[in-house]
TrEMBL record:
<dbReference type="InterPro" id="IPR036291">
    <property type="entry name" value="NAD(P)-bd_dom_sf"/>
</dbReference>
<protein>
    <submittedName>
        <fullName>CoA-binding protein</fullName>
    </submittedName>
</protein>
<dbReference type="Pfam" id="PF13380">
    <property type="entry name" value="CoA_binding_2"/>
</dbReference>
<feature type="domain" description="CoA-binding">
    <location>
        <begin position="18"/>
        <end position="116"/>
    </location>
</feature>
<dbReference type="InterPro" id="IPR003781">
    <property type="entry name" value="CoA-bd"/>
</dbReference>
Length: 147
């Protein structure tokens, strides 16, 4: 039996407004491997946007690694400022925990990457007053919606 989806996604105009009003993005699940989607998105955003980016990956942070010339942080709480958006590249079962962290640090938006779906996480964020985008790619949306 297929589980019924009840969460309603933002419209294209709402997503465009989110991207337009965002200034800082934390990428949770950032990888140092160029073939990984998080690396590709971060690389694109560095080159094609004016967003301030923060990278979050506790394993890379523990090793003191930098990715794309930037510090990698262990958690959202370690960032020098609260990000406007938390762009999540983690497994679906990890999403509620990351969303809770985003709420705690004062993010305005959680953006759950293409291929990921967790309605509990979406409702958790939405109930806390955050914008929620799920199963969409920031890179694709930014490229398609920028003017």
């Amino acid at each position: 039996m297929t589980e019924e989806c009840t969460w309603v996604a933002p419209t294209v105009l709402q997503r465009q407004d989110i991207l337009r009003t965002t200034r800082t993005i934390a990428i949770v699940g950032m990888s140092d491997k160029p073939a990984r989607p998080s690396y590709g998105v971060a690389s694109y955003l560095q080159e094609s946007s004016s967003y301030t980016l923060y990278f979050v990956n506790p394993l890379l942070a523990a090793e003191g690694k930098e990715v794309l010339g930037q510090t990698v942080y262990a958690s959202l709480a370690d960032l020098p400022q609260a990000p406007d958006m938390v762009d999540i590249f983690r497994r679906s079962e990890d999403l509620p925990g990351v969303v809770q962290e985003a709420i705690e640090v004062g993010a305005r938006t959680v953006w759950i990457q293409l291929g990921l779906w967790n309605e509990d996480a979406a409702y958790l964020a939405q109930d806390a007053g955050l914008n929620v985008v799920m199963n969409r790619c920031v890179k694709i949306e930014h490229a398609a919606l920028r003017q």
